[in-house]
Amino acid sequence: MRNVRAFWLLLATLIAAASIVLVGRAHFAVRESSAQTPQADRQEMIQVLRREGLRGAARLKGHYVADIDAHWDFGLFDV
To answer: pLDDT tens digits, residue range 42-64?
Structure first.
């Protein structure tokens, strides 16, 4: 009985892992197929940055990355 339960648990885990991998690959393939050419993408990004700034670029790319200084107050105590 214990071996049967272990078998079903292992089978369910493998099916879940395979599903996650396949869904991830399908999402990546869809994203790749809808991408523009690098030159056209770069030109469009330059135009959006000029018109709308960083917020427009984040809207176009789907994400925004900024540098954050976690120790911003450390510099206040130097002489």
So the answer is: 888 888 888 988 888 888 887 76
Distance CA 47, CA 50 (A): 5
**Domain boundaries, given as residue ranges, for the chain:** 2-63
CA 61/CA 50 separation, integer angstroms: 15
Query: By the 8 A CB rule, do 48 and 56 touch?
Result: yes
For the whole model, what pTM was predicted? 0.35
| Full DSSP string of the chain | -HHHHHHHHHHHHHHHHHHHHHHHHHHHHHHHHT---HHHHHHHHHHHHHHHHHHHHHHHHS-------TTTTGGGG--
